[in-house]
Amino acid sequence: MTATHRPYRSVLYIPGSNARAIEKARGLKADALILDLEDAVSPDEKPAARARVSAVLSEGGFGGRTLIVRINGLDTEWGRADAEAMAQAGAEAVLLPKVSCPAELDALAALVPQAALWAMMETPAGVLNAAAIAAHPRLAGFVLGTNDLAKDLGCLHRPDRLPLITSLELCLLAARAHGRICVDGVYNAFRDTEGLRAEAEQGRALGMDGKTLIHPAQIDVVNEVFAPTAEEIELARRQIAAFEAAQAEGKGVAVVDGRIVENLHVETARATLSKADAIAALETEFAR
Length: 288
Ligand SMILES: CC(C)(COP(=O)(O)OP(=O)(O)OC[C@H]1O[C@@H](n2cnc3c(N)ncnc32)[C@H](O)[C@@H]1OP(=O)(O)O)[C@@H](O)C(=O)NCCC(=O)NCCSC(=O)C[C@H](O)C(=O)O
Ligand SMILES: [Mg+2]
Hints:
- With about 290 residues, the protein is α/β, with parallel strands linked by helices.
- It has two domains: about 5-225, TIM Barrel (Alpha-Beta Barrel), CATH 3.20.20; about 230-285, no CATH class.
- It has twelve helices and ten strands.
- The protein has an eight-stranded parallel β-barrel with strand order 1-2-3-4-5-6-7-8, surrounded by six helices. A two-stranded antiparallel sheet has the order 9-10.
- Helix 2 (about 45-60) runs parallel beside helix 3 and helix 11 (about 230-250) packs across helix 12.
- Bound molecules: ligand LIB3CWND and magnesium ion (MG).
- The site of ligand LIB3CWND has 22 residues, from strand 1, helix 1 and helix 7.
- The site of magnesium ion (MG) has 6 residues, from helix 7.
């Protein structure tokens, strides 16, 4: 699976300092894992966490899950050593926090020549430069950092996320304009399943590929919310079949359930089926 065809419904942060959580993650049904060296790791623990994450990457054992390492910013005392260690360990993907302009990705790209780059979108400057950041040739995707963003904006954490909507949309627009993945921010109240579901549904409605998570209890809900439903899959199949039948009769438009189906709808239908297939393939790997 290529980076853009992998599912990113559930993207779980794991503190790089927490050996038990890392071990547990090998059996969790998260589509992707972020091994964190930044905010989840205290300054005292950072060198040991870096060494642990390097060792964990060499050991493997994570099946088809995408492994992303969030390093410290390159303007911190740890960032450069993190990046060099991840290059040495052959990390497949590296996530840079608080990206504010593409030049920061250039600096990272030079340090990790083998890795796909991911950018945390979590500062006002970063959001305003989202299009230029998304255009970076090595970028795989955005991860929204809604806690840092709320801090810098000075906005309230509201269930409807109204103060963040413009930023979420700007990042999505930029990501989609350049064919990048866009993963929503975390829901902090990790034992509040209904609150998580509501926020995940909002993210899916906006167009996010998935949601970042902080606790295993959050995985099942977002896997469900960000997967095509059985009804969506069945509708997609009928739309494709009806459009192909219409085309065979020389028509450019079909009608399904009283709604028109044109080639653009068929593109969406095919994307739905391909996402469902990618999820099924990954879930087969989870079951091994
Ligand atoms: C939030 C937690 C501190 C809660 O931890 P804990 O009290 O240990 O939870 P539980 O006892 O319920 O844990 C049950 C078992 O699950 C394992 N566990 C817990 N969390 C994880 C995890 N993230 N990944 C894998 N496994 C996990 C425990 O080890 C228990 O296992 P077992 O003993 O075998 O039963 C904790 O969940 C936590 O630290 N979460 C991650 C926090 C984090 O990564 N924060 C930084 C990322 S969010 C961020 O930075 C936001 C962004 O930048 C922004 O700006 O918005
Ligand atoms: Mg942050």
